[in-house]
Every structure is written in structure tokens, then in C-alpha cells.
Amino acid sequence: MNMNEGTVAILIQWSLLCLAWMGSFDLQLRNMKMERRRVLAVISAFLICTFVSWEIYFAPIQVSLSGTILPLISSIVLYTKLMRKIRRLYLLSALATALLLFWLRWLFFTDPILLFWDERIIVPAVGVSAIFLMSRTNLGQLFQLMLSMPLADAIHSLYFWKLSGSCHWGSEYAQDLLWSSLSLWALVSIVWSAIRRILGRTETESSHSDTGR
User: Fold this and answer.
1) pTM score, two decimals?
2) How far is the C-alpha of 170 from the C-alpha of 195, rounded, in Å?
3) What are the beta bridge partners of residue 169?
4) Would you state the pLDDT for residue 208?
5) CB hemisphere CA count around 201 (13 angstroms)
6) By the number of CB atoms within 10 A of the CB, which of 7, 11, 178, 180 ranks highest?
């Protein structure tokens, strides 16, 4: 049974809100020098503005506040927190990821037989895999996600404007893709951090045992 578009995003937002409140992401937030209360405020803002859209007065384009404007504002804030020397590299990586995601959605549209699973699973999985290959830091990865997902959606909406008859940036479906990507990234980050701590502890114990011989 398929859920209505936007339902996945809302469920994930509520889940992340509860997990952040319980402190499940404290380690990742410390690494990114973020405060828990600010993250809670940001997620709440996304949740409240889920169905708020504006129409551009000079073009028949609807822009979602939660699906486009807030992610872009978040990416700008994250960009200012990145190291100056590598900011441009992260920006180029985000643009490359956006083009990759657009190409993937275009490929699924033109050849649906390739869509072997739900697009809301395949696209986030590819996007998260790409940013992990391009960046090693949580901050850089989050920046790339928050910028590449709305950019990919904007390119996709403009490309298929004539076919669909409408252009909506940050639609409910696009928000499903964004928050599916964020939840997958958060899960992988937590698991990877746990693995690194275990391996680090193992190496420390091994070095201590070697010293005692």
C-alpha cells in the first residue's frame, strides 16, 4: 500500500525530532559544533512549513518553503561552517551530486523498467552513497545533502515542466526524497561512528596488551 506523497517526510521528521530530543545524535552534533535545541527548532520549522508554498509572480512556478527555501537556507548556514580552504570543493561536489540525482530520476522516467524498487529508496541510497564517497566529515555530508536534493528537484521540475504542465519546486514527493536521504544519512553516520569507536577501542586494547608483554 503506497502512502500519500509527503507522508514519509512527516513521519521521518517526527521520528528525527524525537530521536534528537532523546540525545541520539549528540555525538554527531558535537562533531558538527551544533546545539541540540537549534536542531530541534530547525526540524520543527520544516514540520510546520510542510504544506506552505509560494508562487513566483513572474513565472508559474510554485516554491515550497519546507521543500526548497528552508533546505537552501540550511545549506548556506552549513556552508559558512565549512573550512574556507575546502568550501568550493564541497560546493562542486554538491552540484555534481545534484546532476547525478537528476540524471537518475530522468533515467527512471524514460526507462521505468530500471525502477526495480521504490524511487524514494533508490534515489536517497545513491545520493547518500555519493556524498560519503566525496566527503569524510558529517558537516560536509549534511551540506551536500541539503544543497543537492533541492537543486536536483528544481532541475527535474524545470526539465519536465512542459510534460507535466506545472512546475513545483519542493513538492511533497521531493520532500519525501529529501527526508528519506537525511534519515538514511543519519542512520549510516551513527552506525559508522559506532564501528569507528569499536575499532578504536580494539586497537587501543591491542596496543596496551602489546606494551605489557
Assistant:
1) 0.85
2) 35
3) 63
4) 46
5) 6
6) 178
In a 10 Å sphere around its CB, with 0-12 CB exposed, 13-18 middle and 19+ buried, how is residue 36 labelled? Answer: middle
Q: Which residues lie across from 63 on neighbouring strands?
A: 54, 169
SS3 content of the chain, % helix, strand, coil (to 5): 75, 5, 20
Q: Name which of 90, 69, 99 is nearest 175 in CA terms.
A: 69
H/E segment holding residue 169: strand 167-169
What pLDDT shows up at residue 1? 46
**Among all chains, which residue has been given the C-alpha cell 513566483?**
56
pLDDT at position 2 is 59
HSE value, Cβ hemisphere, 13 Å, CA-based, for 157: 22
Q: How many whole angstroms separate alpha carbon 212 and alpha carbon 28? A: 34
- Residue 167 burial (10 A CB sphere; 0-12, 13-18, 19+): buried
Q: Among candidates 177, 184, 68, which has minimal Cα distance to 123?
A: 177
Tell me what pLDDT residue 129 has: 93
Q: Which of 123, 149, 127, 137 is nearest to 189 (CA)?
A: 137
**What is the arithmetic mean of pLDDT over 25-54?**
86
Task: Give the count of beta carbons closer than 10 Å to the beta carbon of residue 200.
Answer: 10
**Which one-letter amino acid corresponds to residue 105?**
R
Backbone φ/ψ region at 5: left (φ over 0), alpha (ψ -120 to 50), beta: beta
Which pLDDT belongs to residue 205? 46
| Secondary element (H or E) of residue 167 | strand 167-169
The per-residue pLDDT for 183 is: 93
Band of the pLDDT at 119, cuts 50, 70, 90? confident
CA distance 181 to 16: 12
